[in-house]
Specification:
The complex is a heterodimer. Chain A is α+β, with helices and mostly antiparallel strands. Chain A has helices at residues 29-52, 68-76, 140-154, 170-176, 198-207, and strands at residues 5-12, 18-24, 83-88, 91-99, 115-122, 137-138, 161-165, 180-185, 191-196. Chain A has one domain (5-207): Aminopeptidase (3-Layer(aba) Sandwich). Chain A is globular. Chain A contains five helices and nine strands, in the order E-E-H-H-E-E-E-E-H-E-H-E-E-H. The longest helix of chain A has 24 residues, at 29-52. Chain A has a nine-stranded mixed sheet, with helices on both faces. Chain B has seven helices and one strand, in the order αβαααααα. The chains are: A alpha+beta, B mainly alpha. The interface between A and B is large, with 78 and 50 residues.
């Protein structure tokens, strides 16, 4: 199966320059190999460092338990679960699986279709909370959020997006992405549930064109 | 799906991401739930609308997969287009058994396979609600 590849750009921390990147509209074997060979060892090593430093287990990166091979295999069997990834410098920088089945919860658009971000993770070297040397690339989250919005529009869901944010990401989704925080969800380990309305999706994209 | 990313947009948004000081990860954590998407999906919809949403989404996905318009599917399946619209968009709508059967024929789904299970589940749910 072939992928659609869209040219994109990330910001490289070390140089402060653009780095050419690509958005792929499928998670394939190449990305899963990156996850197994590069992401997982770094994620586990970082988790151990944090544990050794006395960080409480509940504060460790929750995505360390995620098995992307299983998730990608499950998504590939479903029309409702498209997957995407960001590639840069020959490596996978972020992966995302969407779900088009859930409905919106927000009062203004309750019950309407939306695109739910089932899983979204950036490579360990792009995660600030892991403190793996210098943060390598910025912009993976913005690209993947843009993809979720565009996919929502393509499906006729008018840009509506929903997700459960991991604790270390609440600021990104609430403040920067401008999503509505619907509070902790007890059915999801009390992760905060965020939703983006059509207007908020437009505003998110417009942010990138403001000086 | 192809998307045109403007270079300036990417730079500006990357800077905003940097300034936010936060990570970007999202999703459930399987060490506290069960691994796998099914429980996630079911937990994220209204419990009373589960079967309606499942059926509506099934019809919508199958229709889109076959590149059929609502009008064409209604014509091919010999069902009212208004009912198709309600099946896909209204979680409170209860489809007629004949409609489910007609759609099963069109989508070429064996009655011994998926759709029959879905139909039985649906009829059971309707019956339970009605009793």
């Amino acid at each position: 199966m072939s992928e659609d590849i869209s040219p994109a750009f990330l910001l490289e921390s070390a140089t402060g320059e653009f780095a050419p990147a690509e958005l792929w509209d499928r998670i394939g074997e190449r990305q899963l190999a990156d996850w197994e060979d590069h992401w997982t060892p770094q994620l586990l090593a970082a988790s151990k460092r944090l544990r050794d430093a006395g960080v409480d287990r509940s504060q460790l990166p929750q995505a360390r338990h995620w098995n992307w091979r299983n998730k990608a295999a499950s998504a590939a069997e479903s029309l409702a679960n498209p997957s995407f990834c960001v590639m840069c410098a020959g490596q996978t920088q972020g992966m995302m699986i969407l779900n088009t089945l859930p409905r919106a919860r927000g009062l203004t658009h309750r019950g309407k279709h939306l695109v739910y971000i089932e899983y979204l993770e950036s490579a360990p070297w792009n995660q600030r909370s892991l403190s793996i040397g210098q943060h390598r690339y910025h912009g993976v989250g913005a690209l993947l959020m843009r993809v979720a919005i565009e996919f929502s529009r393509q499906e006729g869901f008018k840009g509506r997006v929903g997700l459960h944010s991991l604790p270390q990401s609440n600021g990104w989704y609430g403040s920067t992405c401008g999503m509505t925080d619907l509070g902790p969800d007890r059915a999801y380990q009390s992760l905060r549930y965020f939703e983006m309305t059509t207007e908020q999706a437009d505003a998110f994209i417009a942010k990138g064109y403001k000086p | 799906m192809k998307i045109e990313f403007d270079r300036q947009w990417c730079l500006r948004m990357a800077q905003l991401e940097l300034e936010s000081g936060a990570d970007i990860d999202a999703g459930s954590s399987p060490h506290q739930t069960q691994e796998g998407a099914t429980c996630v999906r079911i937990a994220n919809v209204e419990p009373t609308a589960d079967s309606n949403i499942a059926f509506g989404r099934f019809v919508r996905l199958m229709r889109r997969h076959r590149h059929l318009t609502l009008e064409k599917l209604a014509e091919d399946a010999d069902v009212e287009i208004s009912e198709l619209v309600e099946i896909e968009d209204d979680v409170r709508h209860k489809p007629e058994p004949r409609t489910v059967f007609q759609l099963a024929q069109i989508f070429n789904v064996s009655l011994r396979a998926n759709l029959s299970a879905l139909l039985l589940l649906y009829l059971f749910t309707c019956n339970k609600k009605g009793s």
